[in-house]
Amino acid sequence: MVAARTIELRGRLNYLTTCLKGVVYQTGLLITLSLGTTAR
After folding, report:
1. 19-23, 26-30, 34-38 — which is least confidently predicted?
2. What is the DSSP string of 1-40?
3. Confidence at 7, pLDDT banded by 50, 70, 90
4. What pTM, to 2 d.p., does this model score?
5. What's the mean pLDDT in 11-37?
6. Distances, alpha carbon 10 to alpha carbons 3, 5, 39, in Å
7. In the chain, pLDDT over 90 holds for what percent of residues?
8. Distance between CA 19 and CA 30 in Å, rounded?
9. For residue 16, how far is the Cα from the chain centroid?
10. pLDDT at residue 40 above 70?
């Protein structure tokens, strides 16, 4: 029971970190794009 719960929690953490990385990546892209357009 405990092992299964730990695996489940670990999976959720992995999922959350992946989602966060994606959001950060997209935000970074948007920022660089907006900065690039304003720089011109």
Report:
1. 34-38
2. -HHHHHHHHHHHHHHHHHHHHHHHHHHHHHHHHHHHHHH-
3. very high
4. 0.62
5. 95
6. 10, 8, 43
7. 75
8. 17
9. 7
10. no
Closest CA to 9 of 24, 22, 17: 17
At 10, the amino acid letter reads: R
Burial class (CB in 10 A: 0-12, 13-18, 19+), 17: exposed
Joined tokens for residue 20? 């966060």
Which pair of tokens denotes residue 1? 């029971």
Tokens of 39: 């720089």
